[in-house]
Amino acid sequence: MDDHQQYQDLLALHALDALDASEKALLEAHLVNCAECGSALVEWRDATGLLAHATTPVTPSDELRARILAATQAETRASQTAARVVQMPVAPRRSNLWPNLLRIAAAIAIVGLLVGLIVVWRRDVVLQRDIARLTKERNRTADQLIKEREALAREREALAMLNSRDTKKMELAGTQTAQNARAMFVYNPQTGHAMLMTEGLPATPADKAYEVWFIPKGHTPMPGKMFTVDSSGRAMVSGEIPLEARANVVIAITLEPKKGSLAPTSAIYLGSPSS
Amino acid sequence: MKAELSKTSDGDLLRAVARGDQTALAGIYDRYRLILFGLVMRILHDRGEAEDVLQEAFLQVWRRAGDFDEARGRAFTWLVTIARSRALDRLRASASRGRVATEAAQMPHDEVGDAAEDALRSEQGAIVRQGLSDLPPEQRQALHLAYFEGLTQTEIAARLGDPLGTVKTRMRSGMIKLRELLRDKLGDLK
After folding, report:
1. Single pTM value for the model
2. Contact check, Cβ <8 Å, B39/A55
3. B115 and B102, same structural domain?
4. I need a labelling partner for B2 at 20 to 30 A (CA). Which of A71, A250, B91, B92 fits?
5. What number is the ipTM of this complex?
6. C-beta atoms surrounding B93 within 10 Å
7. Predicted confidence (pLDDT) per residue in B14-64, tens digit
8. Which of B54, B62, B186 shows the shortest C-beta gap to A60?
9. Same domain, B167 and B182
């Protein structure tokens, strides 16, 4: 017995309303999509209706007929009165009222639907914008956090270096090119680890960056790190001094193209006393 | 108008009712009041309640005649379904007050009425009654419990003390005979 046959078997008892709730629910779900069972059910219902003939016909009282007709008349009057009240400003003839009302209702429904769609669409746009803004804010916050951590790490590093007995300090003075600039260069001659802290350097142009030069005695300058400064001309850079330059450290800072130079191309901005 | 009404089909009368024609409603009432009131009485066993229910049923016919669709069944089925549903609703409300159910269970079967009432029955009704009386008693009993008391198959099995499978088979067999009756005898009468 296939599934469809099973449903066919349920139809007769469904027409009698005699199925248990679970079978009834199954069959009703099947009926939604099965035209064949639907038309079979029509015939089963007609067959069920025949059971009314199994009763003894009984004559109701004469008053009942009058009562029913009076009740329908009262309903008709009530609905006509209601119809007239609604109708007067809309249309002169009753027969036009309902189609007009239906048309108006349909128009209102369509407008309502469109407004609803627009509202939903706009809300979606606003939400997407909010999400983008929040994401950007979160990224910005994360970037800021990373930067702050880096700054903290550099400060700790600087403190550790400054407190170390092996660390040497050197003050750099601004040249004619940058008279307000000065810097502190601290380094460990053994490890070559070094830090540079500047202030008062002119703002870095967009296509340029400052470059550190190590100048070993009797050699051409060796390029070190590139850096930019904040609005006060401050920067904190850490790095390694090349082995050749560690014995007698001489450094200079110049302004170079952003990608760096192999030899200085500009005037010196900051220099160690012997540079 | 009266002579014309008697020739109008049930479907046409209902369509007239849907247009607000009270004469058509009266025509339907006059045509089916005996069988519909008999049905409601058979379910409720109380004249006062049965009259209330029949009035409610005809008000529903008046309001909902526009819903009637000949493609979804006979007009007679539509009318009888409304009257039966209303009566069963009332029965369940009364049964919850613990009154009618036992009385109904004790009622004798009423397939054979007295001669005076038999005279009121339509030709169609007579054919159907003959067919129903040919049903084996246990099939008829199961169908009656479902139709007049609104019981489900499981409730019927419990009431009769018979296995559910047996009850289902009886009901299906009875329904198949009713459908044959509908196909063979009533096609020509419509």
Report:
1. 0.55
2. yes
3. no
4. A71
5. 0.85
6. 11
7. 999 999 999 999 999 999 999 999 999 999 999 999 999 999 999 999 999
8. B54
9. yes
